[in-house]
Amino acid sequence: MSGLSVRLLGPLEVWRDGRRENLGGVKQRALLAHLALHVNAGVSLDQLVEALWPVSRPRSVVQNVRTYVWQLRQLLDEQLRTHGTGYVLELSALELDTLKFDELVAEARRRPDAALELLRQAESLWRGRPLEDLPDHDAWTPAIARLDEARLSATEQRLALQVTLGESAEAIPELRALLTEHPYRESVCGQLVIALHQDNRRAEALQVYADMRTRLADELGLEPGPALRAAQLAVLRDEPASAPIRQLPPSVSDFCGRATETGALVAALRRGSVSAPVAGVTGPPGVGKSTLAIRVAHQIGDHFPDGQLYVELGGTSDHPREASEVLTELLHALGVTGAGLPAQVTARAALYRSKLAGRRFLVVLDDAASVSQVVPLLPADAGCAVLVTSRRRLAELPGALQVELPPFAPAEAAELLAGIAGEDRVSAQPDEAAAIASACGHLPLAIRVAGARLAGRGGWSMQVLRERLVDESTRLRELSSGELAVRASFDLSVRQLPEREFQAFVRLASLGPHDFPGWVVESLLDEPGTEHVVDGLVDAHLLESCGADGIGQPRYRLHDLLRCHALEHSLPDGRAALERTLRAWLWLAVTAARRLPVTFGTTICSADPVRAPEHLLAEPVAWFEAERRTLCGAVDIAAAAGLDDVAWQLAAACVPFFDLHSHYEDWARTHARALQSVRAAGNMAGEAALVRGISQVHIYRNEFTDAEQGLLAAQELYRSVGDERGQGIAVAGIGVVYRLRAEYERSMEFYVEALRLLESAGDLHSVAHVRASIGGVHGSLGRPDEAREWLTGARQLAADLGDAHREALVLVRLSALYRSTGEHDEELRSARRAVTILMDLTDERCTAFAQVELAEALISNGHPQEAHDLVQQALETYRRTGNREGEPAALRTLARAAGSLDQLLLPGFQPR
């Protein structure tokens, strides 16, 4: 649109082709102001509503906003566009005075020869207080405060240039007025002292200094800083005074945390060295690298009395700045202009080092793109120091201390939130505050945005914001306030990624919040040798390294907010990449499960071989332990994606490991989640397996009614799909329920029926199990001969099958039989053998079961103390894992051991 001019630096105005436009009523003008303060960034409908109606809202609030937008579009045409569920006002520096102001100030820094005129042009854009004709809005406070600070800084720079160029007389009245308006601003006072001195008004200069010193001491308890003291000393000595170069941006007033990192940086930058010490601050977007660097630079400013140089390197922009351009800016700041500036970058670097020789300067290089960009900017003199920030690792930076910033600790996050939103609000609802900080991933930028939103909405409770941050799909939209936006910060890093790294970043988000091994990137991208892709994401701090797991493979995770950001992108074949990766996990889980002891009733389906790191399965239990949380998450992901076969088969493949280590919560949760998926898909075979598996957990928890109902349902489902083995497994489970209820005759009926079905299906491992169960029931019914026959036959079958786990469980039952027949040597021998086998197999639950039996054998053989200690171990396992099935028997054995030790009369002994 030609001739458009939107003006915020004073009353709100829109001019087009030399004519001032009518902007309508207050609400419509406020909407335009809000969009202009967030220029070129999306503003959601919710944010506009909150800004315009912070307390009470009309019923037609959405229609009102849309009406205002429609009317503004008559003026702004294509500059006001729909953006998602909100709007974006797209303007250039030629069309918006705030952008033009920032552009002129930045240009003045790069061109010292024209800086005075550029700064005057920038100040001329100001017509009063920003948006002074509109009511104050809390949502505008941060943006307007930034504009006010930028104006003050520009005015200071312009007046300092006037003094340097000999225009002291013209600058003095403005400096006096500025000092009256900002009575504690030492930089203004220092410039006034210098200007008065240069104008041969020494007495007035010293009086200005004395007044400032008194004001600082009486009202703030402070002494003047080194720059102001240097100005006074120059007056006293009647020496030419020039203010040190102070280019640092202001430090945030609510800085908190980072004590360890601050201490390390201060020590590194102040240490003695043969060359200029260098420190780098790296970390993911939004973690507070620049905030920390500027804070540290201000803290150690006294150590560098000649000044502090500050340059933005544009490392996260589309075109990072060239070293030659940055050297030009630095040399201009050091007084080198015009023909004195060498043409070659190497000559400029040499002159730059020469200018800093023998002087004490701190150089802050913010947002570096690479080490090659930084190296030409390093001074050689030991009196100087360099502080660099970057989103990428700078491992090759010579001799540098590297500080990698992680997200805040919970206490630091709470402190920052309280500092912005208000201590009273946070302390009144600490749980809500902690939930907000957690939703922000403890990332300082996100917490700062959340705090600003709360600070600008006094009517909100903490719960309102916490509820808005629950939904991951809208979380980044909510984390935007004024000029602060988490999404925009992330965009700067993500858009710099090479194509394959970008694809990996986006696809990794589909794997959920758990950590993952590096090999999954090969599966997601469907190509081998992707280590460099992973390394690139780690170096860009978009992927966090979590160290190595128990089997030595490196693990990684995406920060929660980065994952939300990645999920906003879409790529072709995303579902295919996800399914490919989930099936790789399934194949590994099935392969690992087949190397574990056979778990009765588990259905381990065949999985098609895929490209996956099978060498990791050398120790299958260790692999399952390393992947347990990720596998549980993979079941959720598969179920949510509608991959019902993958979901239930993966849940079932984990059962042998869950059974070995008594992970009943994981077992029940993965089965319940997969069950929703298979039922939605009408997958009756998967439903039968999952219902049977959940019933087994009910048995372990002594929830016999729920177990029986589930097993009956599983039996019917198996019958519907014609699965004879499944029917036998379900019927055998019902037999277990009746056995545990001590209804042995009824139990025997189910076991016999189960044996018939399993023999017909040819499942010999399960046949061995049921034969042992029948033998156990015969023993409980007082039929030792029948029990011995069934049990010895079951043990022989298990041995023939090479099923050591099943053989050990039969040995436990034989031990009980031998005790009933008085064969105590055989009782002890069988029980010891069973415990040894099960401990070698790392089966927690069955080991505890066998330990109780061994304790009984030890009592029978006159070793009650050993028995007492052993059953205590078993009880601890049962209680830790929530296995209530075995606890009553263990307590009875403990009482018998105690009785044998004659401990029942001892105070403090109380079987539980």
From TrEMBL:
It holds the Pfam family NB-ARC. Residues 1-91 bind DNA. GO terms for molecular function: ADP binding; DNA binding. PROSITE patterns: OMPR_PHOB. Residues 1-91 form the OmpR/PhoB-type domain. GO terms for biological process: phosphorelay signal transduction system; regulation of DNA-templated transcription. Keywords: DNA-binding, Repeat, Transcription, Transcription regulation. InterPro entries: AAA+_ATPase (IPR003593), AfsR-DnrI-RedD_regulator (IPR051677), Apaf_helical (IPR042197), BTAD (IPR005158), NB-ARC (IPR002182), OmpR/PhoB-type_DNA-bd (IPR001867), P-loop_NTPase (IPR027417), Sig_transdc_resp-reg_C-effctor (IPR016032). The keyword DNA-binding applies. Transmembrane segments: none annotated. PANTHER family: TRANSCRIPTIONAL REGULATOR REDD, TRANSCRIPTIONAL REGULATOR REDD-RELATED. Belongs to the AfsR/DnrI/RedD regulatory family. This is OmpR/PhoB-type domain-containing protein. It comes from Lentzea aerocolonigenes. The lineage of its organism: Bacteria, Bacillati, Actinomycetota, Actinomycetes, Pseudonocardiales.
